[in-house]
Design goal:
Number of helices: 15
Number of strands: 17
Helix content: 40-55%
Strand content: 15-25%
């Protein structure tokens, strides 16, 4: 039996009234903010399915303008999305898997902060909130000041504890409820920066029709009080209008930070409709069995005709939906190409193992295609190996190439890719690094190369078979480029 959820969702990310650039990022069922979208961004989606993932990330703003770590968190969501669509499990196992992915990325960012502490004393905090929908249930997770809210029956409820330290002060009797509301409603800055912040998970909740979910950065809670937020959410507008009205209210109150608002409206649940139809069918069939034998024979004939008619209608509807889906996918791909970029939604479909056929256009390079598909420019060699492209110059306009998800790339091709990566570094020139507590190959790779994708190269360079072999005090070699 299908458990489809029908959604009207939108996200608006704004730079605010002080900063020219926007370091926030978001992930709305496969779509995220690209690095060239550095100011105001709006995305609207109307979709249906059995599982969805959403998230927003309040970026780290540094003196040098570096905001790559916000993108690192969103890239972790993209990788998790591929695992999330795998069959099996329940809502609790899925949210635990997301927590593990977020914690690993958070550890890498934390290590980066500790390493650069002397260089960058003035950091603004890092925060994240996310939500998954699976089997007609939802669960939320957050780190720091980003929040997740649910509006149900005109009542607004916060699903994750955004201001844990304020609640602790109330319980200790240090501040009153009114003082806490003033702190939360105006400008509460939880000290983060180089402090490591733990994630928090909400209880799983059954999804109901007309539910409205709000994911927001702390720019909203700093500038708009909760009653006003509830009033705007109750306005019966579509998701895009609600998100923009919240942005307008925050700007009217002179919000001084980047602000990102995501609205997810549940417009329908198919499961309930299917159950009603099954009950109606069973009731009619029960009446038929209580009639006379002659009448039952006539009814059985009529029932066969009805079944055939329903079957024909079902086939026609399925074909129509497939045609509409293909048409929409082609339109999305065409729009993304007009922006000189591949849309992530075209590479991560309902079947995460689907191979994408892509025709090279003017302005494309093997590196830009790798960046848009894998979110990693350095993986262009995988595309060359899988398509038997010997030189970068062989990429011509109109040439058709095939983009493979990493999960279905053969091991021999992956091994060849790792070896070629290894050959780019001089085996005689390296730096010795002593493993410390909390280190992983990913965090060490990030410290030296500012990316976690070089972890496999470090692993191969040191003949490490399993990451569990990494022990505190162990000395490993960090190769230098030729």
């Amino acid at each position: 039996m299908s458990n489809k959820i029908f959604l009207d969702s939108a996200v608006v990310s704004h730079s605010g009234t002080v900063y020219e650039t926007n370091t926030d990022n978001f992930y709305i069922n496969g779509r995220f903010k690209h690095d060239y979208e550095n100011s105001n961004v709006e995305v609207t989606q109307k979709d249906n399915g059995e599982s969805f993932i959403f998230g927003i990330c309040d970026g780290i703003r540094e003196e040098n303008g570096d905001d790559n770590r916000s993108f690192e968190m969103i890239k972790a969501l993209k990788i998790y999305d591929q695992q999330f669509k795998n069959p099996g499990g329940d809502i609790n196992s899925k949210i635990k898997l997301l927590e593990k992915s977020i914690e690993e990325t958070n550890n890498v960012i934390y290590s980066k902060n500790i390493k650069e502490k002397k260089k960058n004393e003035n950091k603004i905090g890092f925060a994240f909130s996310g939500m998954i929908m699976f089997q007609n249930k939802m669960a939320a997770i957050n780190i720091g000041n980003c929040g997740v809210y649910l509006l149900r029956d005109e009542m607004l409820k916060q699903l994750t504890n955004e201001h844990k330290r304020v609640n602790k002060l109330i319980k200790m009797g240090i501040i009153s409820d009114d003082q806490a509301k003033k702190l939360v409603g105006k400008k509460l800055n939880l000290p983060m920066g180089n402090d490591r912040v733990e994630s928090r998970i909400s209880e799983s909740t059954k999804i109901l029709r007309d539910d409205i979910y709000l994911l927001c950065s702390d720019g909203l809670s700093k500038s708009v009080d909760e009653e006003k937020i509830k009033s705007i959410l109750n306005s019966k507008h579509d998701s895009s209008t609600i998100a923009n009205n919240l942005i307008k209210e925050a700007r009217k109150n002179l919000v001084d930070d980047n602000i990102t608002i995501m609205i997810i409206k549940v417009t329908d649940l198919k499961t309930k409709v299917l159950n009603d139809r099954n009950n109606e069918f069973n009731e009619k069939w029960g009446k038929v069995r209580n009639r006379s034998d002659l009448q039952q024979k006539d009814d059985k004939k009529s029932l066969k005709i009805v079944r055939r008619t329903i079957f024909i209608i079902f086939i026609c509807a399925t074909i129509s939906l497939m045609y509409i889906s293909m048409k929409n996918n082609n339109q999305k791909l065409k729009e993304s190409k007009n922006n000189s970029s591949l849309d992530i939604n075209t590479s991560i479909n309902d079947n995460s193992n689907e191979v994408l056929e892509y025709k090279v256009e003017q302005g494309d390079t093997i590196e830009s295609i790798s960046r848009d598909y894998y979110a990693d420019e350095s993986k262009y060699k995988l595309i060359m190996l899988m398509n038997k492209i010997e030189r970068k110059d062989d990429l011509k306009i109109g040439k058709t190439i095939y983009l493979y998800p990493e999960e279905i790339i053969p091991e021999d091709v992956k091994s060849k890719y790792v070896n070629e990566e290894k050959n780019e570094y001089n085996s005689d020139k390296y730096e010795i690094y002593t493993v410390k507590s909390g280190d992983t190959l990913g965090s060490i790779s990030f410290q030296y190369f500012n990316t976690i994708v070089k972890a496999d190269m470090i692993k191969s360079f040191n003949n490490i078979n399993d990451e569990n072999e990494l022990k505190i005090g162990m000395e490993i070699k960090i190769p230098k480029e030729n």
